Amino acid sequence: MVESNTYRSIFSPCSAQEQEENFESYWRFTQQHAGKLLEEDKDLTNKREKLKYFQDNPVRSRNPLPNPELFYRNYIKFKDDPQLIDRKTLLLTAIYKFARHEWVGISEAWNVIPDMAASKKLTDKISRVHLAEEFCHIRFFNEMLCIFHLDKVEWVPLGPIKQRVYRIFPRLPGALMDAPAFITELMGMTFYQHLDTLFGEILADEPEAQQRLREILHEIMVDEMAHVGQRRNFIGPVGIKLAQLMLPTIYRLFFWGIPEAKYLFNVEKMIQDGLSFDYTSVSSNLLKRSWVPSYCQIQN
Ligand SMILES: [Fe+2]
Ligand SMILES: [Fe+2]
């Protein structure tokens, strides 16, 4: 799908004509990549098949967590001191919390945006499939937790204030919503890149589990990388400047809400990686399965 070897910043400018062409090119990509939309189930045929493969060929960690109760006590809200908890448990609570935000956000948005039958514009259709893909990610995250024998995880709403923010967000006009929506996709991508590195550090004693986690993560990253470009394509010249300005605050605020994050991740480095994102940090294996806006590629 991606034809270039060299890339430009995700914040590169583009013309209205390029935006239109890129929506068309993304739409061709996403239909072929995700498969048929199963709207009733918020699912997509190709993703469903992938999940079935992971579930039919399960991988489980060699050792259970030192104390699974610690995970269950802290995964929704941290009650203990994160500094006193082993890094494997912290890693898994952080994954859950990140995914939980995504789940709340997409659940609210799913009820607001037009369904496929009511989608008149190409961008509506793109957004519907995009959201279904995000629901598939939640199933993938759930499978990640099952690798560590955590099969009693529940997906629960956030507190009333955060829940309200996510309720209002998809109802905002595009001029207000597009830049932060793009940044949250970019934050997802940089978070997954940092997660990928952490798997190697924290799960050195669990080679099979580590490999499976990575396999699942990469399934998500291929989509997420395409979402980054797709959401960037919604934004004009003013919005892109705004997005750059608001990126550090959005990242800091988001990770401030996940108290264990600072013991696992370097959030400031994540911010730098977000600001300098231009696809060169992504492996070619993932890139060739994904989609990049034409104006972020330098044609050789
Ligand atoms: Fe996602
Ligand atoms: Fe996404």
Automatic annotation (TrEMBL):
InterPro entries, alphabetized: Ferritin-like_SF
SUPFAM superfamilies membership: Ferritin-like
Protein name: Hypothetical conserved protein
Organism: Candidatus Nitrosoglobus terrae
Lineage: Bacteria, Pseudomonadati, Pseudomonadota, Gammaproteobacteria, Chromatiales
